[in-house]
Amino acid sequence: MGNKGRGTKLPKFFAVDFFCGAGGTTRGLIDAGGYVVAGVDKEGSCRATYERNNVNTTLDCAPAKYLQRDIFEASEEYPEGQGDLLLRELAALLDGYQTAYPKIPLLLAICAPCQPFTQMTKIEMTDERAMARRRDRGLLGQTFKYVQNLSPALILSENVAGIQNASYGGVWQDFEQKLRDRGYVVGSNIVEAARFSIPQSRRRSIMLAVNKIDCLPEAIIDAGTPTERLAVPDDDGTGRVVTVRETLEKFPPLKAGEKHPEVPNHHCAGLSEINLRRIRLVQPGDSNAVFDQNGLSLACHDRLRARTGADGKSMKGSFSDIYTRMAPDRPSPTMTTKCFSISNGRFGHYDMSQDRCISVREAAALQTFPDDYEFIGDSIQATAKMVGNAVPPKLSEFFGNLLVSHLRPDARPYYFPDDTPAQASLFPLAAE
């Protein structure tokens, strides 16, 4: 490591971000004052975006490394696994930092892909796809070997709310119990992102864990009992609701299919003539029932009406928010990998003078990515997928800070003022 851009203080924690994708969790942890040593993901498509946008702001100000690895161990049934290689790589990367700075805790962020725990689509699966889906449901449990071998002081896990459903075989609960058995104090809750000053409704399961020997006694609820746990708050304590309007009004207007020449990722999908007619009819926050009154009904609604005899105003099971506009004075709906398309949800722009879906840049803002965070992909579909799959940076920033606050004082790092004369000698890694 060179000493170019050397930081003036040590990080609050070192971190490894499993299933890092385009870097939502990583960016939040860096913003919380952490130093992300590496992000791990088996997909290569996110590498350029991750490396471009996730430069640490402490210690040597180096970018977080992107390790494209499959976390499963190689086997005859699954030869693609790279778990043993990854474990050696991580141990080698962390060793230098932890030897030089033994008082700085290690945090593992474990935000496994959520698709195996959602039921938005019920597609016919090939045997190969079904096997891959079953394997993906085991991703969370598979990371436990990294907990065992790397012994982090702190653990943050995020996933969809549905992962806690019994129908998924207790994956979430089993991981929580394994952490308890390993000596961690653990807390779990389902939270609403909009209550953490995030302009988006996004229900998520959050699990926090602190090694009990490092944990402040006052952070443990019902200490010494079988139900002892960490509190996972329902909100950030500000009471603030951030709206779609205040998040998006700063961006230049666009027409459907247009790409702004200067604002990164400010690019929205084109619309057919019939879909332009549809979105022009819909007032912000309203349903799509108006289509039926204007000869623009959706074929899927027509089929549902024929099957159920519904009157078009209250068709149970229909998707009344597709092809519609966001309400400007509320948080947005959940950003998904299809947030660039009005046919996949309430992703129309709230401004009646802009007949279009939101842009990738606007979706990223609703996810709380900074405006200079550039998503690199060969299509709007590719960049929107990165945005929709991400953990909102502000959510991981909040819980990263909360985890550190639960540590005993002697587990916390030292900070140095900018004018400390002997400061350079305190950064042996930065001087190498």
CATH topology group of the largest domain: Rossmann fold
The overall number of domains is 2
Q: Strand order, main sheet: write it out.
A: 3-2-1-4-5-7-6
Give the averaged pLDDT, no decimals: 88
Name the overall outline: globular
Between the first and last Cα atoms, what is the distance in angstroms?
6 Å
User: Helix and strand succession?
Assistant: EHEHEHEHHHEHEEEEHHHHHHH
Strand content: 5-15%
Number of E-type strands: 9
What oligomeric assembly is this protein in?
Answer: single chain
Helix run count? 14
**CATH homologous superfamily (4th level) name of the largest domain:** Vaccinia Virus protein VP39
Overall structural class, as computed from helix and strand content, comes to: alpha/beta
Low-confidence stretches: 1-5, 129-133, 312-317, 414-432
Taking all Cα atoms into account, the compactness measure Rg is 23 Å
Give the C-level CATH assignment of the largest domain.
Alpha Beta
CATH architecture tag of the largest domain: 3-Layer(aba) Sandwich
Helix content: 25-40%
